[in-house]
Amino acid sequence: MQIKIIGVGKLKEKYLKMGIEEYTKRLGSYCKIQIVEVPDEKAPENLSDKEMAQVKDKEGERILAKIRDNEYVIAMAIEGKLVSSEDLAKELDQCGISGKSSVTFVIGGSLGLSPSVVKRANSKMSFGRITLPHQLMRLVLTEQIYRAFRINAGHSYHK
Ligand SMILES: C[S@@+](CC[C@H](N)C(=O)[O-])C[C@H]1O[C@@H](n2cnc3c(N)ncnc32)[C@H](O)[C@@H]1O
């Protein structure tokens, strides 16, 4: 299976880079994993609603340009379907069984995802009603994907 994570902006913090590197290395035994970064738009505090929508739309266009037609897209969204680690494992397993071998997770920028990306997504997944910074979300998601593969393989790790 091919897993792609699309995120907005470059990772800044060393601890996040190190964590993501560790889990992508571990995931190498289970799938092909690719992290794709698209450039972010400047989003100062005082943007109007219209300007915020424009920022999200521009980032959204860049995200959509990285998604091929055959990819099963999971949009990460606070208001999406609440899932457990087992639910994520099941969704990935189901993708494998039904021949969807390219699964792409999309994480929005600081203002969230554009409606066009949400429309393209096959499902909308939430890790709880808390707001995680988008760069930390990349690390949490990488760990959860690793956990999901361990669960599906029946390997110890998940508690
Ligand atoms: C800082 S958050 C964006 C906050 C924005 N107000 C919103 O409602 O989307 C950046 C991105 O991280 C992801 N994210 C943050 N917390 C999440 C959560 N609890 N569950 C799923 N995705 C989350 C989403 O993809 C979101 O677009």
TrEMBL record:
Any Pfam family hit: SPOUT_MTase
* GO molecular function list: rRNA (pseudouridine-N3-)-methyltransferase activity
Query: Which cellular component terms (GO) are annotated to the entry?
Result: cytoplasm
Q: Major place of localization?
A: cytoplasm
| Enzyme class, first EC level, given as a word | transferase
Q: Which UniProt keywords apply?
A: Cytoplasm, Methyltransferase, rRNA processing, S-adenosyl-L-methionine, Transferase
Q: Which InterPro entries match?
A: Alpha/beta_knot_MTases, RlmH-like, tRNA_m1G_MTases_N
Binding, S-adenosyl-L-methionine: 108, 127-132
The UniProt entry, under PANTHER family, shows:
METHYLTRANSFERASE (PTHR33603), RIBOSOMAL RNA LARGE SUBUNIT METHYLTRANSFERASE H (PTHR33603:SF1)
Biological role stated in the UniProt entry: Specifically methylates the pseudouridine at position 1915 (m3Psi1915) in 23S rRNA.
The similarity comment for this entry is: Belongs to the RNA methyltransferase RlmH family.
The protein's matches in NCBIfam families, at most eight in alphabetical order, are given as: PRK00103.1-3, tRNA_RlmH_YbeA
Complex formation = Homodimer.
Protein name in the entry: Ribosomal RNA large subunit methyltransferase H
